[in-house]
Amino acid sequence: MGILQELVGDIPIPQVAKVKQYFDNQQIDDFTTALSDRLYVKKIENQVQPGMEIAVAVGSRGLDKLVEMTKLTIDFLKDQGAKPFIVPCMGSHGGATGPGQKAVLEHLGIREEVVGAEIRSSMEVVKIDELENGLPIYVDKLASEADGIVVINRVKPHTAFRGPFESGIMKMISIGLGKQKGAEACHQLGFKHMAEHVPAMGKIILDKMPILFAVATVENAFDKVAVLDVLLPEEIEDKEPVLQEQAKQSLPQIMFDKIDVLIIDEIGKNISGDGMDPNITGRYPTPYAYGGPDVTKMVVLDLTEETEGNANGVGTADFTTQRLVDKMDREATYANGLTSTVVGPTHISTAMPNDKTAVQAAIKTCNILHFEKARVVRIKNTLEIGEIEVSETMLDDVEQHQGIEKQTDFYTWEFDEKGNFIN
């Protein structure tokens, strides 16, 4: 037994029970009809002329209905006689390379044979202007040469700043379309100024580039499309903040104000830009965002397969596992921090030999007198919090909250011979 196991070996792990959290599950049932009804209207059809080469900007997030949304948009453009192609719209993701960004889209199911348009992926950009403070504004060169640009994205709260435009259409235009250089420029003066830089850059791009329309969604707490709109460029500035407010109302949450130890089974870029959504964990990479539970110690156990080694976010946790560190692609992870200028999330948190010792270490250091009374919550990831596990001490909270229901009796976690979770 190593020294780390010895230091935490006698720390008790409390029994847990599964509980169900209830959120508003309203969603659009017939997505195809809903989007078609918003695309095939005069004001949108008039934006597209036969023969136009149109760049359809698609990002790296795992949006609900992303493949269908992209295909329906491309079909609509073809029906108007246009020639659409796809450009990856994702800052520095995919290792900040053209082939890497194409691979990210293909991983999400955006492939030419599925959506009916080729992916043209290059990191080359053109500078179209600069802000008054000198920050340059870049746009994907391939998109800039097209006759028109269409943007697809989900609107939701950002994880590092607050403002009327956070994650959504305006950010997709100002940062995503600018590729790595655009993301780098927008992040250069830090998240403190992001709330002003995103719309300032976005408005200039809207003014100078042929953006035809944007397809915007808002997802419910179960990551299903609840709100859908197709916005003309002149509508984005007024309508996106309204969608942003709807997104904040729909945000899922862990329904406990105080947590001693939060355990997260997996993190990854397919789950959140930060690996795990700080709006859920209450752990933010900057001081310019806020909300969520008060968590004393946080543990992340593993990476998703889809994140392909990008462990951005692990640094916001207090403990992790050697297994996660072994899977980490440091170049991809560090590229994230170098572009965003926020390097704390790319640090490697204290790595313990296995799941059990990581949990014990978190309990040992959560600054409570009786370890067996630790308020422990375990979730699979920040996208899946409908059913979670909580420790015995939290039973009173469960019984007093109308949105939470106990599902099982209390039981003891089982670990395999390597000290990793079995259940």
Structure explained in plain terms:
The model has no long low-confidence stretch (mean pLDDT 92). The radius of gyration is 22 Å and the shape is globular. The chain contains 16 helices and 15 strands. Strand 9 (258-267), helix 12 and strand 10 form a beta-alpha-beta unit. A six-stranded mixed beta sheet has the order 10-9-13-14-1-15. With 423 residues, the protein is α/β, with parallel strands linked by helices.
Task: From the structure above, extract its key features.
423 residues; alpha/beta; 6-stranded mixed sheet; 5-stranded mixed sheet; 16 helices; 15 strands
Helices and strands, with pairings:
Elements lengths: L2 H6 L7 E6 L9 H9 L2 H4 L7 E6 L7 H14 L3 E6 L9 H10 L4 H4 L9 E6 L5 E5 H4 L3 E7 L14 H8 L2 H9 L6 H15 L2 E9 L5 E7 L1 H18 L7 E10 L10 H4 L12 E10 L15 E3 H6 L2 H11 L9 E3 L2 H10 L11 E4 L7 E5 L3 H6 L3 E3 L17
Parallel strand pairs: 2-3, 2-6, 6-7, 9-10, 9-13, 11-12
Antiparallel strand pairs: 1-14, 1-15, 4-5, 7-8, 13-14
